Amino acid sequence: xxxxxxxxxxxxxxxxxxxxxxxxxxxxxxxxxxxxxxxxxxxxxxxxxxxxxxxxxxxxxxxxxxxxxxxxxxxxxxxxxxxxxxxxxxxxxxxxxxxxxxxxxxxxxxxxxxxxxxxxxxxxxxxxxxxxxxxxxxxxxxxxxxxxxxxxxxxxxxxxxxxxxxxxxxxxxxxxxxxxxxxxxxxxxxxxxxxxxxxxxxxxxxxxxxxxxxxxxxxxxxxxxxxxxxxxxxxxxxxxxxxxxxxxxxxxxxxxxxxxxxxxxxxxxxxxxxxxxxxxxxxxxxxxxxxxxxxxxxxxxxxxxxxxxxxxxxxxxxxxxxxxxxxxxxxxxxxxxxxxxxxxxxxxxxxxxxxxxxxxxxxxxxxxxxxxxxxxxxxxxxxxxxxxxxxxxxxxxxxxxxxxxxxxxxxxxxxxxxxxxxxxxxxxxxxxxxxxxxxxxxxxxxxxxxxxxxxxxxxxxxxxxxxxxxxxxxxxxxxxxxxxxxxxxxxxxxxxxxxxxxxxxxxxxxxxxxxxxxxxxxxxxxxxxxxxxxxxxxxx
Length: 540
Prior knowledge:
Layout: H1 5-9, H2 25-39, E1 47-50, E2 150-153, H3 154-170, H4 174-191, H5 197-211, H6 215-233, H7 238-254, H8 257-275, H9 284-291, H10 294-310, H11 315-336, H12 341-357, H13 363-381, H14 386-401, H15 405-420, H16 428-444, H17 447-461, H18 468-485, H19 493-518, H20 523-539
Antiparallel strand pairs: 1-2
């Protein structure tokens, strides 16, 4: 059975080694020594001699943290793009299921490297049954390694290299994991240019790069992996289907929807074809494998749904795809686990479509996309999870910016109720909900509640680097509240007119300050401008 990258290898990384024990740092040592041995051009081209320390190494404890980006972050446009660039809110709209940028700590993995001629030389072929060619095994006259050395096959060396990369990912060192895989490719490719194991290294590198949001580099490695796999296993193998799927996801992340759709359909056809092949056919082994791999079919189906979603022009079209998206998401969750990298990546790519949809002129499309996102996150994490609550806050912000204040208030209150189950009142996310509620009150004319809520949020967020953007928006809300607080009955008409003019001028100044910081086209700036126009009419 082949390993189709981290997708199958790391669904729940709580057991971190071949025997179910934790990854040991000796793996890194062995992988490094394997690289050094290869660079020294050892004579046996299918085996590598390494000196592996026999001293016991304490196991690393598995990460008890949920994924640091809890499933998603990156460089795409976010709901509040530029609004939370630094500090604790840097992860809010680059957080769970938003985009693939920050390091992710997987929970567990299952071994199973791709098939390799270097690993499959059996006794019948004159080998030692352990993946060694005749004359290269650990026994036999004149063929044994020097004292103190262990001779391992190329496949075993690459296994150790991947184990070392897994160790880096578990430690939250995603960039180092990618570098280790790239170094391995640079070392092994010139020495073993025709080895099928290279396809697996390219596949692993593609997935990690894709999760980092580096889609161009990921596509390069996914293409190389596909070509290598086709060359060794043919165009109709199950392993080829997995490589087509990975490249299809890369093309989707690049925004090349037509290419992505073609690759994903080809992968799905192979997976469906293999799963329906009868016993005794040449594809019988692949049929058994495909039947036990429903996650791959659901993954391909999910991205095909996302391709269709990218072309939807109305809210009804978004809703029509929700059932299929949800079914495929459930299939991936059952196959890989709720915290798997594959599921995280799928949700982050869906989030990218949501963020793009919010920039469209059609309000109903944006609303339907956000509701769809809440549905998917609720399926994975639970309806009262932090992830679903953050998505509801996004929906509340979208409603606020489009003058749907009653709906905005309802959504932000639901988000706050869920967050209170996880955090104390002074937590940043709960203060953020109160901040949004204050802005809603200011727009509705409840100047007393607005002033109370926004003064508190302004104080909380002032001086927090990127969070000062929240303080700037609070200033806008306070200026709106000041305008609303003016009572024409208590002031002479001329005096009231002057005070309102001053309040409007203050509001305009604060809006301009926010626009300078995050852009005039930002939805919060456009929303504030909308409310400025309403107050200007009242003043006239």
